[in-house]
UniProtKB/TrEMBL annotation:
Species in which this protein is naturally found: Fimbriimonas ginsengisoli Gsoil 348
Domain of life: Bacteria
Domain named FHA: residues: 69-126
Name of the featured protein: FraH-related protein
InterPro entries reported in the protein's UniProt record: FHA_dom, SMAD_FHA_dom_sf
Length: 161
């Protein structure tokens, strides 16, 4: 994979996990496939993704989360990172190891890893957090990069217990 953002803003490949926009989309109802995540190992509890948000709207740039996933910027001294946000214009506000996304006991969580510009979760207002539980559709900001956290059907089913 490459570390490039295509100029049309529709896709990004960051590491071994290409942005979902780069992967073929499938329709479970028509072809029997389960999802476009088929090539990734299935974590306990299913999948989640971060969808980049710009100008108040979700984009089609998506980052799959395979827990535990560390989001940040690639650093040649440290090596690859699970979710590399360094190619985004907003990436300059993201620390090298900014936040960790985990799935434990049926709950997705984000934990700030001592970032310079903070990790924020939108409840009534954006709140800077050390650790926070996440729900489907909740906004998360890593520094100046804003995302919407989405569960896939497998994750949503796993959290309905």
């Amino acid at each position: 994979m490459t570390d490039d953002v295509q100029n049309n803003g529709t896709a990004m490949a960051t590491d071994d996990h290409a942005a979902i926009a780069d992967q073929p989309q499938t329709d479970a109802a028509s072809d029997g496939s389960t999802s476009h995540y088929a090539d990734l190992p299935t974590p306990q509890g299913g999948f989640a993704k971060l969808v980049l948000k710009r100008s108040g709207a979700e984009t089609d740039i998506e980052f799959p989360l395979n827990p535990p996933s560390i989001a940040g910027r690639f650093d040649p001294a440290v090596g690859p990172i699970d979710v590399d946000l360094g190619s985004l214009p907003e990436g300059s506000y993201v620390s090298r190891k900014h936040a960790k996304f985990t799935y434990e006991d049926g709950v997705w969580r984000v934990t700030d890893l001592g970032s310079s510009n903070g990790t924020f979760v939108l409840n009534d207002d954006f709140e800077r957090v050390e650790t926070a539980d996440l729900r489907d559709g909740q906004e998360v900001a890593l520094g100046n990069a804003r995302f919407v956290f989405h569960l896939t059907p497998a994750s949503a089913a796993g959290t309905a217990d």
